[in-house]
Amino acid sequence: MIQGLFALAGLALIVSPAAANPSQDAKPKAAATKQVAPGKGKRASAKGKPKAAAARPAAPELRPSAETLRVHDWVSAAGDNHGLPYLIVDKPNAALFLYDARGKQLAAVPVLIGIAPGDDATPGIGAKQLSEIGPAEKTTPAGRFLARFGLAVGKERVLWVDYYTSVALHPVPAGAAARKEKRRERLASPTPDDNRITFGCINVPSTFYAKTLSPMYKGKGGYVYVLPDGKPIEDVFPALHVQTADRRGA
Q1: pTM across the whole model
Q2: What gap in Å lies between CA 177 and CA 179, rounded to an integer?
């Protein structure tokens, strides 16, 4: 959740997206209340030859998990996205898959998610300041959300996944706190093991956010399906019970 550094007045205002550098986290407020790593220049050795840069492990190609494909198949077959683009956040694998309104996959990118495992937001967490949020509350809730762009503090535009619990999707922050946490390095790492670092918000690569996601979600927005990392997937998306029954009867 992008908290503490953002403040909203009233309900989120739907606007067209922009690629401005986001703050550390975003947090809406009630009325009348507050609410791949940068490159380094090469240094010459004593003999005047540049030192070879240390090789970094290549990030593996992202492929939809079986659970991601189940949700995609259901959404496409049932038309649950109501003619809007949608994306699926696979929390266990720290990956995001973007689809157009017809269900065609357009992109796959790594994501950063909440520090703590868990599929539910703490009641009233949207009204808390960052300093009031405990470690176990820093979760990215699972579920189905209609996401739309809205304004945060400083007239910054963010894609609100769940406005009332302060969960937004935005580029990796560029501030000092994010650099200290090595968020860009975590996003570029070859495994999802170090991708849990946010207060609950979903961080994505800035180029993907600006050039691909934002143009698709402007206007009417789009759907976001966040897979669970603890609950059975059918508990989060009950329609999958019917899908499973249909497969067994086939």
Answers
A1: 0.77
A2: 5
Inter-CA distances, 143 with 113, 182, 227, 236, Å: 14, 28, 7, 6
Residue-wise pLDDT tens digits, 68-102:
999 999 999 999 999 999 999 999 999 999 999 99
Phi first, then psi, for residue 178 (nearest 5°) are -65, -35
- Tens digits of per-residue pLDDT, 35-58? 434 444 433 344 444 555 455 555
Separation of alpha carbons 242 and 240, rounded Å: 5
State the first-to-last Cα distance of the chain, in angstroms, to the nearest integer: 42
Q: Which residues, including other chains, have CB under 8 Å from residue 120's CB and lie 6 or more apart?
A: 139, 141, 142
User: What amino acid is encoded at 162 in this protein?
Assistant: D
- Cβ atoms of 228 and 135 within 8 Å: the answer is no
Taking only Cα atoms into account, the Rg of the chain, rounded to an integer number of angstroms, comes to 19
The answer to whether 131 and 199 have CB atoms below 8 angstroms apart is no
How far is C-alpha 210 from the geometric centre of its chain's CA atoms?
A: 14
Spatial contact of 119 and 141, defined as CB atoms under 8 Å apart:
yes
